Amino acid sequence: MNKYQKLFSNFIKKNHGKIHFACHSHHYWPDCTREAQLEYWEDSSKMVDDKWEYIFSNKIPRAQELLSEVLNFTRSSDITFAPNTHELVNRILSSFDGKIKLLTTDSEFYSFSRQLNRLIEAGVIEATIIATLPFENFEERFIQESKSGYDIVFTSHVFFNSGLAINNLEGFVEEIAENNSNIIIDGYHAFMALPINLSSIGDKIFYLAGSYKYLGAGEGCCFMTIPKDCKLRPKNTGWFAELSALDNVNENQVGFPNDGLRFAGSTLDFTSLYRMVSVLEMYEREEINSEFIHNHVKICQEVFLKIIEEMSHPHLNRENLILQDLHHHGHFLTFNLESPEIVNSIKKKLEENGILTDSRKNRLRFGFSIYHDSNDYQLEKFNV
Ligand SMILES: Cc1ncc(COP(=O)(O)O)c(C=O)c1O
Q1: What is the CATH number of the domain that holds 303?
Q2: What is the DSSP string of 300-316?
Q3: Are 65 and 53 within one domain?
Q4: Which string of DSSP letters, residue by residue, matches 140-182?
Q5: pLDDT digit string (tens) for 53-90?
Q6: Could you report the per-residue pLDDT of 147-197, keeping only the tens digit for each?
Q7: 265 shares a domain with 207
Q8: Number of domains the chain contains
Q9: Any idea what the Cα angle at residue 332 is, between residues 70 and 69, rounded to 5°?
Q10: What is the pTM of this model?
């Protein structure tokens, strides 16, 4: 095990003989998360009722501070938490009255796209959906459409079904913000994968992500940065929103805080937040940041691409690969194959060789991580 793999020794040892290429789906958890899990139990037993005061005055601000560093976000108290992104997005959607005019893409994760389809069906949303492919001019087409002005603009930073990434997020947002004030960026596949800099655009967007993927802190801790001076009043609102100073408190109106708690829900299990803090602190101690992780992954991807070229495989080849520019790409590579049957058959054969991948319909995805050592990649194992 190399120095970085040692940080994940528990998961690696328990999956001996396998190379985990599904890290974009279910990332291994670093060893520090075990301690964090136990710490939550200890704190619960020691503090009992006082635990909540401790979490809100200590753990949440710590998580907000660490996330702000990773995201280059300047208003740490404007970060809100929920067990999943679905809850956060629904809270934003619930802030609008009447039919919502929404601009999005055809490549949003099921959590959003299913909800969107149901709300379109129910007549709550009228959506304009832009295809991400051909990606060469996606940003141009999306920006052009945004000029007509929408109640909500929703797009991923890195698309889950291809790994393709918005090239210059800052410039992209600046242009959309000229005509739109509620921009939601789903950063689930970008957070702790690509270097993210919200310093110039954080005031104009909601940026959503979660701990489950590239952070490796497991499920249950999603978060959202909110725009500066956000005045939306979600109809879907939980009592945690009352845990901060409320604005406009009068008998006729529900008050809302002027920080991230504006979009808060209700009681939840904060074990996952403990794990998130432990991983972010571990990376800080080890002096590992998103840039470092991204560079490591790019090297792994380059080695993999060389193997693919050497293999001349009928399916796993460059022609079937959705890739524009490795420098602006997520941490997984996607093969667009003829059918889900071919995908499943290749996936099964790879698994027999200890290569664990994942798929979405006719797309086979290979994910790369800081816990990969590209010296372990052997052509024979991929050549199925
Ligand atoms: C782009 C994207 N957004 C969001 C999610 C998670 O959604 P939720 O937290 O609602 O389960 C995923 C999960 O894979 C995803 O790929």
Answers
A1: 3.90.1150.10
A2: HHHHHHHHHHHHT-SSS
A3: yes
A4: HHHHHHHTT--SEEEEESB-TTT-BB-S-HHHHHHHHHTT-S-
A5: 999 999 999 999 999 999 999 999 999 999 999 999 99
A6: 999 999 999 999 999 999 999 999 999 999 999 999 999 999 999 999 999
A7: yes
A8: 2
A9: 0
A10: 0.96
Are 48 and 21 part of one and the same domain?
A: no
Cα separation of 365 and 383, whole Å?
A: 16
* Cα distance from N-terminal residue to C-terminal residue, the chain: 26
Which residues have C-beta within 8 Å of that of residue 348, sequence separation ≥ 6? none
Tokens 């998580």 label which residue? 63
Binding site membership of 156 for ligand 1 (Cβ less than 6 Å): yes
Identify the three-state secondary structure at position 253.
strand
Please work out whether the CB of residue 222 comes within 6 Å of at least one atom of ligand 1: yes
Single out the residue in 264, 284, 304 at which a domain terminates: 284
List the domain range (segments joined by +) for residue 342: 5-29+289-382
Probe target for ligand 1 pocket from 109, 113, 276, with the most ligand atoms within 8 Å of CB? 109
Tens digits of residue pLDDT in 308-336: 999 999 999 999 999 999 988 999 999 99
pLDDT of residue 252: 82
Do 295 and 198 belong together in one domain? no
pLDDT exceeds 70 at position 249: no
Lowest mean pLDDT, pick from 30-39, 242-251, 360-369 = 242-251
Please choose from 110, 160, 331 the residue to mutate so as to test ligand 1's pocket, defined by most ligand atoms within 8 A of CB: 160
